[in-house]
Design brief:
mainly alpha; elongated
Amino acid sequence: MEISIDINELANLTQVIGIKDSNFAKILQQRASDGEIDAQICLAAMYLEGRLFPKDQFKAITWFRRAAENGSPKAQYYLARLYQLGQGVARDMDEALKWYFRSAEKGLAQARSSLGRIYLNGDGLPQDYAEALKWQSLAAEQGFADAQNELGIMYAKGLGVTKDLVEATKWFQKAAKQGLDEAELNLAETQAGEGAGALENMEEAVKWYTRAAEKGDLRAQFKLGHLYIVGLVTPLDLERGLIWMEKAAENGLPDAQYYFAELWDKGEVIDRDLEVAIKWYRLAADQNWPKAQLRLAQMFERGEGVAQNHVSAVNWYWKAADLGLSQAQYALGEKYFSGHGVAQNIAKAMKWIKRAAENGESIAQRRLGELLTAVGSPESFKEAYKWSSLAAEAGQIEAQYYLGIMLVNGQGVEKNLAEGAKWFRRAAENGHPNAQFNLAAMFSEGQGVERDQTEAFKWTKLAAEGGLPRAMVTLGHFYDLGQAVQADPALAFEWYLRAAEKGEEDAQHNVAVCYIRGDGVEQNQEEAVKWFRICGEAGNQEAQIFLAHMYYEGDGVTEDKAESIRWFRLAAEGGNIEARLALGKMYETGDGLPQDQKQALKWYRRAAAGGSSTAQTFAERLANDSKNQKSPRQVKKAKRKR
């Protein structure tokens, strides 16, 4: 930021030195050379601004220095500013402070205010709010508008002084009455309850916002538009709000462009128009407004108001992510993970998701925890635990659930059932069905919590009502067995059926059994067969055995030995001992199968290997019979001997 001499001040300088001759430049130089301070300052200002003389910052500094050394507080102030900004000379805060103090000690308000800002910001001097307040107060009391505004900010924020919004308002008003735009905006914000303070005097706020807005202040236009749009002004004037908001947007204020785009995007106060929204989002995005870039990326990704285009989505995610927006960093990571709009790259996916996690994006912390858990190494489990903990503390429900699992299993952290139960409860209370079910199991078994079947029932019921099929089956068992609740076969059947319809194999088997026995539902063999067949085809051995017996005996179905054998064989191949024993008998007796002692012995032995003593006995008998039985050649040979 370069310093410049206000044109009015330049006119005042020329008026002070009183040169009216046509040889103004020559006379000015002569009088400056003769040591006239006002002429020296005027000549320095001319060189600084490039008026009458070619712009020459070195010569400007030279003449400001001569006037400063001659004791001019104004020249000392300008020289200090040039050294502070490094304008026309190397930046030198020691030199700047030397001249600021000389000027301030002689009473120049601008120098005093500058020292106040230096102390406030700790620029070249240790930060010192008390010193900042002292110098700004001196300058403000002299009527310097900038100092009055700065003093108002310090009172509004409580910097070096007890926070006092009334006192802040007083100083903002003094500066605003002198026409300082920034003070008008600060005064409006204080009255509106925004920014530095909260006096909530909307009538005053609107007055000062309007004054600044009419002067062309974009922030004031934006704030004024917002007040009218959200209805903080009485009476509500949406039309006026939209006019001011659009004016700020058209004048290039990116946050106004973004806000205006959101109005068209959401369609809450005006009719939704995505085409108009995209136009304003683009304008804000082109000014590197990250939230606008993020929203454009989302619209391209989902095809909202534009043709779906994952490549364009990635492009906008990139821009916002590169500017540090954690939401965009996470989304970009997921894009690399999925390979939509960009070549799949797991390393880059992890990089961006981790960057978002490091920037505090809790969903990225949760996701990073999940990804590291999947790696499965001891180190990755430790990292996963760290990120899952952060996400869980931030309220990510899935992370709370995963944290519970890691603590219960001792993954990445020492096993701690009580701590695991705590996190399962946090997730369960937030409606996570799996966490509710796991917590129920811990209450049921007394792991990490005191054994309590009533609590187990409560959490199982919540998980079941949340749509978890496993919980539905367990809830059915509670009603079936009358545990922690009065036995109710009808309710048991209802929950078994709900789980069965969601594909839960155990539930499908239980439904079939209920139909066979008439437990909680009217007996119905056809329905039983239907459900046994569904879970039998899915590999449930108990259902396969039931079906095998039903077809063998014609119980609820037409007797069909071939179908019976098919189900016995499926169960036997799956390792079921009963089915192997049954096949052995059928081969031995020729019941539904060709009589075959070798096949019978094979299945007896397989059943025996599974632990069946009966099958072991049958196998030994059949083996002995085979040894004692004479072959046809042996029989023929015996006849010849006779």
